[in-house]
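Teaching assistant's notes for section 4

Start the section by putting this record on the projector. Ask students to predict, before seeing the second block, whether Fpg/Nei family DNA glycosylase will look compact or extended. Collect guesses on the board.
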Amino acid sequence: MPELPEVHALAADLDGRLRGHVVDRLDVTAFAALKTFDPPVSALHGMLVASVGRHGKFLDATLVASSASAVSDERGGAGRRADGELHLIIHLARAGWIRRRDAAPIPSARPRGRSTGPLAARLVLDDGSGLDITEAGTKKSLAIWLVRNPDDVPGIANLGPDPLAPEFTEQVLAGILAAAGRSQLKGVLRSQSRIAGIGNAYSDEILWAAKMSPFKPADMPPGDVHTLYEAMQRMLREALERADGLKASELKAEKKSNLNVHGRFGEPCPRCGDTIRQVIYADSTFQYCPTCQTGGKPLADRVLSRLLK
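Reveal the predicted structure now:
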């Protein structure tokens, strides 16, 4: 699943490619992916892409009337709203991605609105180029909204603070952890309503960097909060720096090649050499190093092995 660093880099790449272009249409081929009906997708015709930004793991393409003079840096961030402005919001979920298409698509005999394999939607610009929004696998979770205000999307309205924002201080993190009480730390880091943008992979990486168990209670002493905060900032900012300037097609490989523990079950820990273990849930799996994070003891599962330190 794309997380904060990849979505941030993807938004920057798309902003550079789409800003200033006029939209011809949005063809939705996976009907269930579109979560809104007002305004209709036909309202995008003739609108200008003013910017592409993000809210946590949500992409936000801001569109204005093509005659507007709002395509400038003075417009502000993706969350700003003006009269007549629309926002095309995309959440890529676990298996979604966006591919740039430079040429006009070959006409299809299939009617619009019917799913055609991995293609969920296609944004076509006035010059025939555009984006293919795809989702692999059979479990379809990718979601698209067309709204007048980003906060009309419940997931955005309920987002916690962005961990890379200047106002996200160590004190803010301490308050989030204290409010979570004895909830497992792994789950707190992944909760989008508590902290925006961190998912399964980077929560593994942050906990490994902080040398903390995924099952450690969230409410912790100030020294541990400092350690966790420093690990969070370092791992996310390093990932952001690596992803900066990459094309969308390069982001997945970059992320995978630089992970220390996530997705590396059975490999040696890059810090201590112990074998990386994993815990399997019904719908996800996480990895950790026993020596670095759990005092050398393996975690059997979330019920039987609630190791606290």
